[in-house]
Model the fold of this input.
Amino acid sequence: MKKRSAEIDMIRGLTIALVVVGHAGIPDALNDILRTFRMPLFFLVSGYIFSMAKYEFNFKGLVKSRFWSLIVPYFIVCFFSYFIWLLSNFAGEKESGWIWYNPILGALYGNGESLIINIAL
Done:
């Protein structure tokens, strides 16, 4: 088993921290500078550590792995967000013209306009 590179993990951690800083309300000029490289660097480093040999003849394993690590947590968070949204609407903070299935459609579409709950997803 190969040893993980601490330098790669530190760069990934730094880029994640830069994304958090970018969402923390820093001045626009600084955010524009950070925006140019933080996500491309994160994807570059993450692609560097992806093991193609592990899935070379096992596409089904790749899909199964990504399903359980990405899709299942996404829908779990969507479910809890939807539950909280329903509770807040029944507790008296009802939005004008709300329709109970709109957040479900938004979770399935997965875009910001339709995803009226937990837009960060």
